[in-house]
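QUALITY CONTROL LOG
STEP: pairwise intake check
CHECKER ROLE: data steward
CRITERIA: each record must contain a sequence immediately followed by its structure tokens, with no blank fields

ENTRY 1 OF 2
RESULT FIELD BELOW
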Amino acid sequence: MNYKKILSTALFCGAFLHLATAQTAMPPMPSSDAPKNWHQLDLDKDGFYGISLNQAYELVKGKKSKTVLVATIDSGCDTLQKDMQGIIWVNPKETPNNAKDGDRDGYVNDVHGWNFLGGPGGKCDVNETSEEVREYDRLKPKYAGLAQAPAGDEKGYSYWLNVKAKHDTTVAHSTAELQGLQQTMGFLMITNGYIKKALKLGPQGTFTAKDLAKIDIKDTTKPGIDTLKNAIFGWNYILGAEGDDATNVKVIDDLNESIEKDNNDISPELANRKNIVGDDPNVWSSNYGNNLVEFPDASHGTGVAGLIGAKRGNGYGIDGVADNVRIIIIKAVPKGDEYDKDIANGIFFAVNHGAKVINMSFGKKISPHKNWVDSAVRYAAAHDVLLVHASGNDNENTDEVIQYPNNRLLDGTTAGNFLEIGASAWKKDTTLAAYFSNYGQKTVDVFAPGLHVTSIDLNAEFNTADGTSFSAPIVTGIAALILEYYPKLSAEQVKEAIMESATPIKGLMVYKPGTRDLVDFTTLSKTGGIVNAYRALEIASKMKGERKKE
């Protein structure tokens, strides 16, 4: 759930939750509940604006598929998750736990992938701050207090002013937001106890929205009944917004993460990188990190990997979009902004180990070493590797507000192997564009399901969440599915098939993300439509392969 867009604006007074402020600030949500697999359904047959995945599999029924390697650059992955067994990549040239570099690539025991946030002793740099906060600290000694650019350093000074402006905005926003989040947490912690007492649960007990309906609140003479009603009201709203699988524990954990992120912007721990990883993120190198890809923060990456390729038809968990993939796990995204150095190295690592599609569900506002990332993007293009990137969750127009990474390279060229994905909901009505999604008629390529998407989570759990972070892997799964059956297609041809599959939804007026302004859906992306797996495969089947010889 996107707490930064809803709960941070909610006001709490004692045990009463005033939700009117949050609800008037954002456009309405879709009017009906969607099934957990709605993102795979078909609009005409099922009534949900999914990707028509069942129809796609009917189209290729009886055809042989080829295994496709996909990489996720993310927060890691639960390698023991039941739905990922046999799906996570195993490096055939490495012997687990022998402390040797079997494939001589500079990464010791990279059995399932690599952790570019790792350090000696199995440590990991989990908690980071925003890039503009890090850059402000780095540049402050040189530029703070200057009223004009030093002679010959006009470009550097201009960059400093940009960093400072974004830093000041971020810190001010986090400071204001933190107060609301802490008030929200106070409400949740107090009412959490009321609910558990009413349900006769122990201190560690968990409850869902369905459990709240079991509480008897008919006896209005019962002491504390009004307080209990208010607690149920607040929790019903919050749990209902997050999905059927949401629990009180998950809600509190997620809110704690948002509080931690704001605190990291306000009072950053700037020595984490040096103390844990040991490298200098502003000096290029590649042989750092460790081979441990699973840490307690791997929930996001596990969900992303599951949407791409969780085992299909096993009667457990979810069915991934692609049915014959192996996923290379690259851990490079902390709680906070990623480092350009890690992203560039992650792309190089994925390409060098055979990935044909790379999912990138992350982003930020400053890119101090974009040249490194651009080099990696060009390297991927030269090796026919498609990059699929989440556009972001700030309901901003990325034609006007630049997000990183992107396909606009510093040399003035545009990367043809780069897909930028927005998030959609399930109803073909005014709510079709997800309220949080970034958008851009020039910079976002296509939309894909991203509201209330259910995937796997850590420790055999499941999670329903919102985000372009989950729209991107759905598209990555479609790209992999195309390459399974049409392996001779180039990265740019796969991109073309995906974009052509998104029929422009002309004339449909939708709420512009983050507002109550109605706009034509076609103005929110290049294609003006939502990706469709069936049509993408149909289009791909008619293409003559242009993939370079490997």
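ENTRY 2 OF 2
RESULT FIELD BELOW
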Amino acid sequence: MKIISLLYCMGVMIACGSNLIDNSGFEEILPDGATKGWQELRPTYRIENGAGRNGSRGLVYENDDPDIYRLVSQKVDLQIDCLYRFSVWVRTESLEGAENGATVCLQWHDRAGKWLGGSFPKGVKGTHGWHKIEGSVKIPEGAAVVSVTPYVRKGMTGKAWFDDLELVKHIPPPVGVICSSAYRDTVAAHECSYFVELALAANDLCAQDVEAIFTLRAHTGEVVFTRAADSIKEDHAVITIDTARIAEGCYDVEFVLRTVAGEELGCCAGRMKRVAQMPERKVWIDAHKRVIVDGRPFFPLGMFFSGIKKDQLKIYAAGPFNCLMPYVMPSAEQVDMVHEAGLKIIYSLKDIYYGTCYAPKALKSEADEAEFVRVRVEKFKDHPALLAWYVNDELPPDMIGRLSARQTLMRELDPDHPTWVVLYQYNQVRTYIPSFDIVGTDPYPIPGKSAGMALTWSRVTRDQCWNARPFWQVPQVFDWAGYGEGADKAEQRAPTLDEMRTMAWHCIAAGANGLIFYSFFDLVKMDEKDPFEKRWREVCEMATEIRGYLPVLLSAESVSGIECAGGDQIEYRAWSYNNAHYLLIVNGSRQSAGAIVKLAARPDRIATEFGEAPVVSADGELQFKIDPLKPVLIRW
């Protein structure tokens, strides 16, 4: 039991059951000569003796026509909301093309056969010996048909070999990550909550079976208190501490989960630094999850760039945005240009991980990373344009150890600026909590999916952090045609002004504390298809509307006594500002939806900022009828 508890404390995933892929090594042959579980798509894909590892059978890809794109897949029976790890061994020979090679993916469709999404680990190309490609994913709601596919990405030529696929369900440990509501675990005399991730049902437990105990311990070893969690649910336990009663100093917040009989199931630990008053910082996060820049609340409203060019920056700076996020690490001169333009910059360190796709050639090992980061941080941490550090762009959850170590390093190197990460793994955000100060997810639904995806992802992102961390969302303004080819490219389009506006307000309604749109450079790139001037005008119109409400969005004045009754696709958020109350309410459905809102007191007068005005009933209820996907903002 002690060994198991140690594994739980370390967050090790425990495998459950066997490989879920039928004939994962291509060895079994049916009486008719076909390979069990697989269909050959000759001449592109074939299964041969001696093509696998160690001379076994394997799948061979051979193609000299970049326009040919075929997929060899197998349907697998997986469960919704469960975590799976999958892998394949590949080797390549002269595999060339713009994409990143031979790999494996999981994809899912709904019951009608519509593609919903998937997990696509980066592959290998060129000429390489046998290499293991791995990924992990939690199957989302709505997925009815799931398939596993060993494949070479579109538009590539050459040869690749595949063998020994694996797909295994994993049971998370009963105790996972711990998350503090305090920015970087530092508190003055106010309440602070600690959330601990639990996985009771996955381990055949329920809340009645267990005890969740928190201990606050000074670094001297003295126990300040030991008490049960304020509440315990299937997926988390929480305690709220009144720090006004805690002496200044550094503390460990220890958590133990045990059965009612006293058997330890798992543990974890967080930190608390109690101070007399919050330290002065250039940029930090307050208790309302707002970013505070030079002492004032700031709502990041920006776009992704590739590199920074003077002519493009001039156009951008004349628009409604207040910050930008360049993918390419900018020079000191470029950062100065951003500052002179009156903008803030999020500085990218996303590629400083040895062995990843875009890692600098100067990195020869993981040991080189810290020095590379230290030099960049020392150079720019005092620059007045710096808003935050971008430290992870969709890297996989199996890198959480390295990502968490990077967060620890960034806290040491720069106490004055937060870190931001962006993930497509929106339903696995909780796994990444030790690796960021601020998170974002990037729903890009147009044209294949509903703009309401922005609401769904934002809700899940918020809830994955127990609404204890800020999140800056990354809505879509780009055209997927910039990333496609052939017929796929022809079927794509950019979001309309109405769709961009919908996605932005949906993110805000679910709690987003910033919006960094993707991307400015795609608008430039797609000029021949959609004239940049027209697209930029639409993007600016959408963002200008949001900018006009930034004082409201940044208000810390609460609105009490609001009750909203509506369907699952109704979301709302309220603010008080300048002696008025504001209510944003959105419909995430493709169908019209109704909602009834009760206020603490009957309003004297309601003004509709945008959207369809509600009907006020005789007893003062606000009756909304909201068109599909639309936002409504009222003031009273």
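INTAKE CHECK: passed for both entries
DESCRIPTIVE NOTE, ENTRY 2: The mean pLDDT is 94.
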